[in-house]
Amino acid sequence: MREISYEEQTVRSGNPLARYAHRTRMTMAIGLVTRSCVKSGTVVDFGAGPGLFLHELGEARPDVTLVGHDPYMAPAFPEVKYAESLDTVEAQSVDVLTAFEVCEHLYSSELDALLDDAARILKPGGAFILSVPIMYGLAIAPKVSNWMIRSHSFKSEYSPAELLKAMVGIPVSRPQNPRTTHKGFDFRELRKIVSQRFVIDAVHLSPMPHTPWWLSSQYFMICRPQAGFAAVRS
User: Cβ distance 119 to 225 under 8 Å?
Assistant: First the structure.
């Protein structure tokens, strides 16, 4: 079976609802970063994949230095530099750090390390912008359906009872390995963790920005480091 590319899973998905959600998410991400980054600033994208977001950001903001990091995907755009790890990024050198659709795949220790790195590498007043999927509310049904269609399977990782619980916002247990699944991920728990280390300046919903969260598909947070939480990692 042919491997489905990143773009075919997202902005070029054969599912029109998934394609609309991902394209709207990409547009919102570019807008938020563009407004948050100073002239000739530096943007680092954690979990950059092949670099599609940074490539499109560079077209909107050619003055910005683009740096990506992804241990699993090869870069596809020559204008994007890749860092081997965030450990190699100089302290207080980054204007905007992004982590789009990646935190839901991290183990707790990896999330802690990302927050440490974010506090260390961001400039004073820099922005840490995250987006994660909303796996509760009305969006869960089309998301599960899209996964089944893409996997050519009639089976879902959600039981009917779990699907109903997720639709009304009741937590569903997560698999031990978060790498290849969104099941049970709860943006509300992530927000609690992030707010212990960062000031959350603003939140945004996509693709329905002016509705309750349970009608949307993605949750964005714009965060700033709290004073006294600048981490120094050896």
Answer: yes
Total residue count of the chain as it appears in this document: 234
Closest to 101 (Cα-Cα) out of 70, 78, 80, 57: 70
pLDDT digit string, tens, across residues 73-110: 889 999 999 999 999 999 999 999 999 999 999 999 99
- Distance CA(63)–CA(68), nearest Å, equals 16
Q: Which CATH class is domain 6-135+176-225?
A: alpha beta
Helix (H) or strand (E) holding 212: none
HEC letters along 118-171: HHHHEEEEEEEEEEEECCCCCCHHHHHHHHHHHCCCCCCCCCHHHHHHHHCCCC
| pTM of the predicted model over 0.70 | yes
What's the 3-state SS for 38-62? CCCCEEEEECCCCCHHHHHHHHHCC
